[in-house]
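Long-time lurker, first post. I've been practising inverse folding by hand and with some scripts of my own, and I keep getting stuck on stretches where the structure tokens seem ambiguous. Below is the full token string for one chain I'm working on. Before anyone asks, I'm not after the true native sequence, just a reasonable design that respects the backbone. If someone could post their per-position residues I'd love to compare against what I wrote down in my notebook.
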């Protein structure tokens, strides 16, 4: 009975994090972009510092009419937002946030599990694009699939490098094996992993599949109301997952400076928050890449860097053993 209660409490905690943190990042994005770009609107909703902007957005989405195109495949069209969102909930279950088994569920092959499940999210975009009966949506879905194929490989190679260094593919095992001297020679792998993750999430400057100036809003053009809000929520949930994984794999997870591991989950959340700010900052700072530039970056820059990182990791492992 106690084991069942423990599982239920862990899953409940993961579900609460899944519901809260993406909304916090969404609200933070409003504020950070408002400051960086001099936007006035997000700073006024509700009075003090625009505290009600997130509430206003939720009410707006809830009030919008739920429209399904006449020529759409209705069942697939309605199912696509859930397919895009749920993989990130499953991944959060396996990400450790602190020592002493502070994780929803320990998965022995944690790296393989999280990367495989994250790859399922592209099916939501493909389903949305195909089922919408809209050529712009279909083109956006196909671009999403092509982008995922290009950036999945460098992301996997970068994760493999840190798994080699730790000697395990378990996420808690990688954090336990972490040493601060890893950071300088794993930094290239961390950058490759983070950039590839941004591209998989279609975050600027890698948002060609949803570029309003080219194909309106890609696979999501025909979506309105709460279904459209679910696609946006999946993007912010993806940011939480990407920043959390980068923290666990490359930044020591719950390990703090000067051996201050007692705070545990606080360090994990703090590192994740800093990386989430970087994601927002990149959206404000850099212009969108063209489709050919996006593919060229993956195949001619990130993949060679990831392979070089694996080679370096092999050399360091041999030398230090």
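-- Answer (accepted) --
I ran through it position by position. Result:
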């Amino acid at each position: 009975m106690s084991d069942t209660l423990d599982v239920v409490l862990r899953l409940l905690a993961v579900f609460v994090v899944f519901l809260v943190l993406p909304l916090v990042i969404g609200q933070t994005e409003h504020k950070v972009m408002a400051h960086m770009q001099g936007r006035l609107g997000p700073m006024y909703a509700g009075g003090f510092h625009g505290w009600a902007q997130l509430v206003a957005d939720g009410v707006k989405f809830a009030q919008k009419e739920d429209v399904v195109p006449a020529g759409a495949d209705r069942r697939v069209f309605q199912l696509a937002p859930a397919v895009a969102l749920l993989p990130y909930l499953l991944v959060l279950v396996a990400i450790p946030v602190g020592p002493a088994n502070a994780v929803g569920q320990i998965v022995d092959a944690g790296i393989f599990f999280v990367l495989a499940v994250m790859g399922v999210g592209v099916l939501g975009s493909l389903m949305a694009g195909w089922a919408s009966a809209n050529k712009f949506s279909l083109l956006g879905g196909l671009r999403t699939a092509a982008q995922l194929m290009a950036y999945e490989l460098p992301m996997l190679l970068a994760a493999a490098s840190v798994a080699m260094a730790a000697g395990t593919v378990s996420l808690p095992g990688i954090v336990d094996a972490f040493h601060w001297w890893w950071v300088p020679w794993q930094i290239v792998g961390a950058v490759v992993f983070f950039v590839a993750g941004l591209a998989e999430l279609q975050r600027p400057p890698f948002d060609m599949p949803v570029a309003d100036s080219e194909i309106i809003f890609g696979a999501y053009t025909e979506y309105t109301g709460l279904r459209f809000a679910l696609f946006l929520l999946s993007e912010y949930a993806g940011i939480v997952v990407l920043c959390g994984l980068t923290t666990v794999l490359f930044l020591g997870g719950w390990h703090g400076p000067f051996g201050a591991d007692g705070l545990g989950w606080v360090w994990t959340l703090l590192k994740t928050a800093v990386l989430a700010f970087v994601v927002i900052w990149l959206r404000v700072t850099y212009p969108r890449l063209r489709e050919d530039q996006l593919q060229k970056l993956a195949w001619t820059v990130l993949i060679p860097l990831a392979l070089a990182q694996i080679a370096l990791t092999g050399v360091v492992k041999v030398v230090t053993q």
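A couple of notes from the structure itself: The first helix runs from residue 2 to 37. The chain has twelve helices and no strands. Happy to go over any region you disagree with.
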